[in-house]
Amino acid sequence: MTSSEHTNSAVDHASNSSMNFHNSNETNDDLLTLPDLHFSYRKTSVALYVAFLIICNVVIPCLLFYLLQNFTNITTKELIGISSAALGISSCFDAPFRLFRLVKHARTYGPTDVWWHLDFVMWTYTFALLVFAFPLAIAPAIAFYNFFLMSTMMLVGPVGVVFFFSLLAYHYQWRLPVRCSSEPVGSLMKPAVFYCLEDVGAVDFMHGRIFRQRVHRRWDASPPFRQLMTELTIYWVISGAIYCGLTAAVTWAATLNFAFGWVLGQFFIWAFVSWVGCHFLARRGLKRERAYWDDRGRTLFKENTGPGGINEGGEQEKPPKRSRSAPGHVNDSASADTSTPTTPATRSLNAPPSKVEKTEVV
């Protein structure tokens, strides 16, 4: 073999080695791990809480109103006053308990270690309760009973206004003048459903501050997830507006005896129907999210559960040994001596990066 042939053989071998190495890197790079939320819940706990709300806000007020109306001689003004007191029972329990958990265990559930840095849900819920209290307090005193029936609308309306404002802020890229959940002053505001997901999962479902990290990583990594949060916020704004319109129509068009029981029951009918629609949109959005990454030639680390994996009882499989994280996502499989970069969205979250867990995953 001549020296020229030796040279050509060496060049071909080097070229083939380079191509094989390049293809190997492409194969590894095509493995993309989407940040999982690891959200789980107990159906029994949710069912008991819903039953508690229905008993306090429908059963007890209606029993008091209709039984006292038919079997006693007390006036309508006194009936409304008694029913008004009964209607606020549930708020006397859930709001203080949530506030206690958020303040007392700020390092575990709160967005920061500062106890008075309450989250978005707590501030919004407090604002809605203050507006909700006006018809309960004023209507019996001035004998304006139709105004009393507007109380549930006064609870839903302010939340809808906050949600609508978050959409405007997100669209026009307004920066936060105050801290909002885990985000510091000066951050771009996100749709309200994103903050609700972060806060309710971290505090009410007791997944802690690590859940806040996971939600922000998912937001940073996945454009379809951002689109889903926006769509769900729009959905709840429209749903809340429909509820307020229906409540106003029944309140002013129907008699007090009919409107009293219907308005209180209508709130939970609306909540159930809205939940069904939200559940459908969320599952569709999670399917679309997976299709988005598949269409771009990425092989997602998929779970055995269905799309979303919420309450499916699945367990996370062993991830690929080498995977490339999505943009903005910190790879949880990195070695311990590798420093973890901090994104602006998660700068105030001090919990360690998430690890592979056996749990129900989103």
TrEMBL record:
The keyword Plastid does not apply. The chain crosses the membrane at residues 46-67, 79-100, 120-145, 152-172, 232-254, 260-282. It comes from the Eukaryota. The keyword Ribosomal protein does not apply. Residues 332-346 have a biased composition (Low complexity). This is Uncharacterized protein. Residues 303-362 are annotated as: Disordered. Keywords: Membrane, Transmembrane, Transmembrane helix.
